[in-house]
Amino acid sequence: MADKPKVAIYWLASCAGCDEAIVDLNEAILMVADAVDIVLWPVALDFKYESIRKMEKGEITLAIIHGAVRNSEQEEMAKLLREKSQLVLAFGACACFGGTAGLANFRSKEDIFNWVYQDAPTVVNPNMNRPQTETSVNGNTLTLPEFFERVHPLNDIISVDYYLPGCPPPPDLIANAVFAVLEDKLPPRGTTLAPSKPLCDACPRNRSKPLRLEISEFKRIHEVEANEDQCFLAQGILCIGPAIRSGCGETCIRTNTPCRGCFGPVDGVDDAGAKFISSLASLISADNEEESQKTIDGIADLAGYCYRFSLPSASLKHKNKE
Ligand code: SF4
Ligand code: SF4
Q: How many CB atoms lie within 10 A of CB 251?
């Protein structure tokens, strides 16, 4: 009998919600487990990195990698899996675009270390110690991964063959992706394995979205009792759906929560946040500059909202110290 395809599932800077999404395949996970040989899945099974290092180049058919890259251990593992795998799937918003961990790019590494190891009210660190990549203890050297200046999406570090966005990706798209690999029915490399139309096109509230939106006041979702049928933007509540790829099942919208953008941009758009912000300007209804400024000032943390899942892959990418 021919060997089963080998699959590695690995986490970088990730909350492991993507691992849970794989388990959420329910019965389909049994079919997948039967069809493949899982050679690495740290959250579920005890494999050693060494056994991956000993593999031939390309011996793994598919590496499913979730999480962003923030330190040198994550970089090393991403490069190792790239070398040993025929296909790499960037799985979830963090691997695809940097994810919520990528919001850290609004701060420098120095700012983060100062807060975490010195300034936070709960910290007691009289010697101002900071983590070191090498520390000598009783004649032995202990090592820690190097914490990078900023968070990276996976394709900053290695070449990626396919992308499956979402926080986390939904089970139907995961199953489609895995079976496309097993049945050799994959689209061209570089494809995002989700529909390319915008979320608004799939949204059950789309019909209530006026052709010409005019917003004179922005409200935050917790400040109002949002109408459950009406388009959020028509209610003056930020919803980034016009700039975001569909395929999530409109999960947030169906629970009366506006879209924050975990599926990333549609094909042909690099920066969904910038696209949304530029379109937002044309929606503001004001008679003069003062009124328009007042409306804009009513938007809390616009950059944090529009780049919640995608700052490291946006044109802005990170705080520039200079
Ligand atoms: S803006 Fe949001 S609520 Fe309105 S149609 Fe688009 S996705 Fe739906
Ligand atoms: S509605 Fe937006 S934030 Fe929510 S799951 Fe869908 S793409 Fe992600």
A: 13
